[in-house]
Every structure is written in C-alpha cells, then in structure tokens.
Amino acid sequence: MEKIYDVIIIGAGPSGLTAGLYAARDRMSTLVLEKEKPGGQIATTDEVANYPGSIENATGPDLVARMVEQCKEFGAEIEKDTIQEVNLEDKIKVLTGDKGTYKAKSVIVATGATPRKLGAPGEVELTGKGVSYCATCDADFFSDFEVFCIGGGDSAVEEAIHLSKFARKVTIVHRREELKAAKSIQEKAFKNEKIDFIWNTQVKEIKGDGMVESIVFENLNTGEVTEHEADEEDGTFGIFIFVGYIPETDLFKGKMELSKAGYIITNDNMHTDIPGVFAAGDVREKTLRQVATAVGDGAVAAIQAEKYIEHAFEE
Fold first, then answer.
1. Number of H helices, E strands in the chain
2. One domain, residues 216 and 280
3. Using CA atoms, how far apart are residues 93 and 104, in angstroms rounded to an integer?
4. Of the residues 137, 149, 282, 297, which is catalytic?
5. CA 241 – CA 194 distance, rounded (Å)
6. Among residues 6, 138, 282, 297, which one is catalytic?
7. Model's pTM, two decimal places?
8. Domain encompassing residue 286
9. What pLDDT digit, counting tens, does each position of 75-88 carry?
10. Among this protein's residues, is 71 annotated catalytic?
11. Count of domains observed in the chain
12. What is the pLDDT of residues 79-131, one digit of tens each?
C-alpha cells in the first residue's frame, strides 16, 4: 500500500526544516522535499549574526546542518526531488515529482523567495563578499564603510536609511530620475545627511578579487561609463541590491490565493485558502523575511497541520 504521510513539506529552508522538526517531534509521519541542497538562502550566508543564540558566529551552512540533524533525529524524512504538479483540493493531497508521487493528509509550502538579481557581471561571484541583498543581515559588517544601495522602491530606500546607521556614507543608485518609494519614506532619505543619490544609472559590472573592489556604472541618458573604486584604506565597500524578490510560487498559480506580487496569502496561523494546506517562511505575504520569522512560521504551520489532521481525519 502506498504510504500516505501526515504532512509533506515542500522546501528545506529554515521554515521547512523547522516545520519538519515540529511535525516529526509530535509523532506525525513527515517528509521534507527539497529540489536543491537544504537551507535556502541561508545556505549561502557566511555569518548569521542576527539569529537568536548564534553567539559563536555560526555560518549559514552550520546552522542548516544542525536543523537537518534535528529533523532526522526526530524521524523526519528528507528527500531530494523537484515537484512538478500538485493536487491539493482533495482530502489526500498528491504531489508529483521527477522521482515519484507523494501523498499526504496535509501540505506545508515552504518554497521561499529569491532576491531579484541585477544580472551584472561579478554580482554572483561577489555575493557574500561585499554584495548583499539584506541590510538587516549585513549592515553591521559595513560599519564606517561606504555602501551603495541599488534600487528606488520602498525596500531600497528603507534599507538605505537603515544602512546609514552603520555606514559612513550611503549612495542610492536608481535607474530613473525619481524614487518609486512612498513620499514619506523619500522625505526621510532626502533629509538624511549620510545619503546621496545617483540618478538614471544602472550597474554595469562589479569587480573584485575575493571581495568587492570597484563598481562600474552606466548613465542611461548619456551612455557615460564610470568606475568607482574602493577607498585605499578601506579596501572594499558594500553593495546592497534591493530590486525585489521572486517568490517560488509558479507551482501554485491558479491553485491557491496569491498576492499581486505572487506570494501565498495566509492568515496568522499559516492557513492558505485550501483546507489542509499551509504556507511558511519567505513564500508567504509578510513584512519581514528573516531566519527568525521563518522558523516561527514553520513551527506554527506544523502545529496547525496537526490540529487540522485531528479534526479532518477523526473517526
């Protein structure tokens, strides 16, 4: 007889692994499916300094390894597979992957979201070595350094204001001649003496040997190309990119309620609009996407899945 799990979790980032830990610890048969390596975005983070209890400067991979070990210790199965199709409407949920078909009484979607990249040469190679997509995570590393903040929306300007508490100078670089952020946020930025602006400009290339050493700009009106090099004493500077996130929700379009930006809409208990289907972490519509909020989501989702099963499958 084909196995029917109590809960299947799609995604093995911090929210998915936390959900797996809580579900397995509560004696639910639990399967965590991940298309790549466990960890999500945190797996590429050199230092997780803002996660509670991480006082020994644990790296992202270290933290993920502990989460995976805990999951398995309590009996959760973790498998690598890419889910291509889902049937979530029936009481027994069916997930079809490259390697097989999986069935469960409940599903927790924890597929995450990825920062939108600029696509500039050097960006990927220097991520974590001066290039960042999270001011809350990495601002402290650039105390008294110069930083550039790429983007002009609410997030970019808010993060630039946050960065100004640490960096000696923040420059917002925007493709247009005016910001897209809300006027109230713009006013704060314009009044901030640490924040400068470069308009009608895109990043053409990011250069460096092991760390960011220079950034090449192109003026979109004139075509002029300029290169900004790191201060000799500093040796480097920060580049924070805020041009949006891409939620991993293609699989669920037309099958559950999504926001205009493509995130899964849930209530405070992680319920989606489909009974027995929950969402946790960066994939859901929320205001803060951090490891701390992801693990909280995962814990709530697992407990709610257990409560759902108790009522939906009671004899």
1. 6, 17
2. no
3. 5
4. 137
5. 18
6. 138
7. 0.77
8. 4-115+245-312
9. 999 999 999 999 99
10. no
11. 2
12. 999 999 999 999 999 999 999 999 999 999 999 998 899 999 999 999 999 99
pLDDT at 238 over 80: yes
Closest listed residue to residue 85, CA positions, set 281, 274, 282, 253: 253
Question: What DSSP designation does 199 have?
Answer: -
Q: Are the C-beta atoms of 234 and 134 separated by less than 8 Å? A: no
314 pLDDT exceeds 80? Answer: no
Which is the catalytic residue, given 26, 62, 81, 134? Answer: 134
Residue 120 domain-assigned (yes or no):
no
Active-site residue 250, yes or no?
Answer: no
Alpha carbons within 13 A on the beta-carbon side of 216: 12
Describe the strand order of the beta sheet including 131-132 as a list of residue ranges.
131-132, 238-241, 146-150, 169-173, 195-198
Pick the last residue of a domain from 241, 261, 281.
241
Provide the CATH number for the domain around residue 141: 3.50.50.60
Query: Distance (Å, rounded) from C-alpha 179 to C-alpha 154?
Result: 9
Q: Mark whether 144 is an active-site residue.
A: no
**Is 233 part of a structural domain of the chain?**
yes
> Final residue of a domain: which of 206, 241, 276?
241
Q: Which amino acid is at 38?
A: P
User: Given this model, what pLDDT does residue 315 score?
Assistant: 56
Structural domain includes residue 205:
yes
